[in-house]
Amino acid sequence: MHSVKHPRDIAIVGAGLAGVACAIAITRELGTFVPDLNIRVFERSDFPCTSGGAVNLAPVAQRHLARLGVMEELDRMGTYAGADIDSVKLFSMTSARLIGSIDFTDRAGKSYDGYKGRRVMRVVLLTAMISVAERANVKFFYGKKVVGGEEIDEKAVLHFEDGSTSSADLVLGCDGVHSPTRTNWVDPDRPSEYCGMSFLQTTVDTQDTSSPLPFDSAVHISRYGSLLTTYCDRDREHIFAAAIMEFKEEELEYYRLRPGQDWSTRNRIRSSLRQRLDNRFRKCAEPCANEIVHGDKEWILYPVHQVRPGGRWCMNRVALIGDAAHAMPPLYSSASYALDDAILFSRVLSRHGSDSIKLVFDIYDQLRRNAVDCAFVESSTIWNKMKFRSSLQERVKEWKMPSYIRHNQRKREERWISDATKVPIPTPELNEPLNPWQSFHQE
Ligand SMILES: Cc1cc2nc3c(=O)[nH]c(=O)nc-3n(C[C@H](O)[C@H](O)[C@H](O)COP(=O)(O)OP(=O)(O)OC[C@H]3O[C@@H](n4cnc5c(N)ncnc54)[C@H](O)[C@@H]3O)c2cc1C
User: Fold this and answer.
1) Phi and psi at residue 132, in whole multiples of 5°?
2) Of 104, 108, 114, 375, which is least packed with CB atoms within 10 Å of its CB?
3) What is the 3-state secondary structure (H, E, C) of 158-213?
4) Residues framing ligand 1 (Cβ under 6 A)
5) What is the pLDDT, as a whole number, of residue 194?
6) CA 282–ligand 1 middle distance (angstroms)
7) Atom 38 of ligand 1 has which residue's CA nearest to it?
8) Distance between Cα 323 and ligand 1 center (Å)
9) The pLDDT of residue 429 is above 80
10) Which family does it belong to (predicted)?
11) Taking the CA atoms of the chain, what radius of gyration do you get in angstroms?
12) Measuring CA to CA, which residue among 106, 110, 126 is closest to residue 48?
């Protein structure tokens, strides 16, 4: 059942989680009935992006990665495949009192379909994803920074910083929160905005700490922000630490590390970041976390940006996927929204791509919009609670938090078991079903 109408040439902007997941998912969905499918991924960096330290993969993210064949590949990476995490324990930073727990197991302590949480270095995850994509014949082009695009006749044309262009039947803008595909093409009225909070991140060898982490993953909460400490490798030889705290937008430039900066500037940035961390978190009652704060590791600043909900996700031949469309402050499983996007988009494309791209975009928007808008509101609410408070406000927050966490447990459980491969795709009139047997799921 060969369809000549399906898009054959697909260009993806960005080799991040959304871009590579789209490449794999589309190959799986379309590959069997579009044999000359040509998927190219254009990445601005000269190598896979390593920023962001270690990511937590909630059960839903792992289920989706497993469907894409990535968990198997990741598991081949030995200790670097990441640390399995049952829960993230939340503590008061100053008293070390347990406030609550974000569980990645069910109430009987069991995994969800074999998946709990997993903390893995982003670069390792991306390496596993890219290996799977390359085996599926996806082609990667590094050092290709997209600066804009246009639609000409039946084609979408990408413009690169080096002056070259490339045309495709369909372009997917998976170029993250600052997406030029969005700001220079699809929706220029929706720039990214700084959410007021930043991550300061580092990794520490466990052999350099005198005490072990008492829990695999913990967040120490204070009125100045939160400090995450978590193992990020299977053998628990490395700890990933992230301090989440307020930085004013106008301060960010002062702390920004850039290629080409001289030694003294870099040294000034490193020591002022350390100073800032020390001021905020020096009273951490948990010994290992306290040692990490006072150690001599280099901390890197990652300002957190977001893209306000609403706005346009697509034009005639270009669509935004992942953070490019709906970046939100990260919360337990933000990356899983990018994976949901990739799987759902590929399924809608396979089902309706021979009808019209517009129909694909409309159905995809209809399936995704409400879910990501709700997630944005939830994560923004929680992030606002992390902002600076007086000590009285902090006490009230600590007192209320256990019931808030319990109250939201059902919502989290629903999210952990959600499965983008099972969401019913609306069936169009006059549309013949396409080879469903190679699809992720037969509706
Ligand atoms: C500090 C931080 C910590 C986080 N921690 C977690 C976590 O623990 N768990 C979780 O689930 N989620 C987490 N998230 C959220 C998660 O990282 C994102 O939701 C996810 O990475 C989105 O994937 P993406 O592919 O849409 O964007 P990205 O991962 O940002 O990928 C975008 C890609 O596009 C490329 N690109 C950008 N511009 C261009 C251009 N002009 N031309 C070509 N290529 C371009 C980039 O180099 C990059 O490779 C975190 C986010 C942040 C900021």
Assistant:
1) -65, -45
2) 108
3) EEECCCCEEEECEEEECCCCCCHHHHHHHCCCCCCEEEEEEEEEEEEEHHHCCCCC
4) 13-19, 42-45, 49, 52, 55-56, 61, 145-146, 174-176, 180, 199, 302, 304, 322-324, 330, 333-336, 338
5) 96
6) 30
7) 175
8) 7
9) no
10) Belongs to the paxM FAD-dependent monooxygenase family.
11) 22
12) 126
Least confident of 29-33, 49-53, 249-253: 49-53
Quick: pLDDT tens for 373-405. 999 998 888 887 766 677 777 777 777 878 888
Of the residues 22, 55, 372, which should be mutated to test ligand 1's pocket, given the most ligand atoms within 8 Å of the CB?
55
Q: Beta-carbon neighbour count of residue 266 at 10 Å? A: 13
Query: What is the position in ligand 1's atom list of the atom closest to the CA of 16?
Result: 31
Name the percent of the chain in helix, strand, coil, to the closest 5: 40, 25, 35
> Quick one: three-class SS letters along 201-249?
EEEEEHHHCCCCCCCCEEEEEECCEEEEEEECCCCCCEEEEEEEEECCH
pTM: 0.93
Judge whether residue 430 has pLDDT over 80. Answer: no
Q: Could you tell me if residue 358 is left (phi over 0), alpha (psi between -120 and 50 degrees) or otherwise beta?
A: alpha
C-alpha 16 – ligand 1 centre gap (Å): 6
